[in-house]
Design a protein that fits this description.
The chain is globular, with a radius of gyration of 16 Å. It is built from 4 helices and 4 strands, in the order ββαββααα. It is of the alpha+beta class and about 100 residues long.
């Protein structure tokens, strides 16, 4: 198999894993997830064993997040971020079903 091989099924693409465990996320998936380089991603295992990859927002993107939301300053930032990530994930899942 070549380093990057696109399968007939348009939802899959095989990529090489280096000896250090690094992989290149194909451009079309980076674009779909909004992953910029350099950037960070989160791997999450669901209850059914499926592994998902999610974009982690850069700190610069989070500036003013609390001010833009309707949350009060009494709400911990971690809770605000968790809610925002859940909203983003729900939107991605909705887009994938469309």
């Amino acid at each position: 198999m070549s380093e990057t091989e696109r399968k007939e099924d348009t939802e899959t693409e095989a990529v090489a894993v280096t000896e250090h465990g690094a992989v290149m996320i194909p451009e079309r998936f980076r674009e779909q997830l909004g992953i910029n380089t350099p950037g960070r991603v989160l791997f999450r295992e669901t209850d059914d064993g499926t592994v998902t990859i999610e974009r982690i927002a850069a700190p610069s993107e989070m500036r003013g997040f609390a001010a833009r939301s309707e949350a009060t300053t009494e709400t911990p930032a971690t809770e605000l971020l968790r809610e925002k990530r859940q909203q983003d994930q729900a939107e991605r899942e909705s887009d994938q079903l469309s």
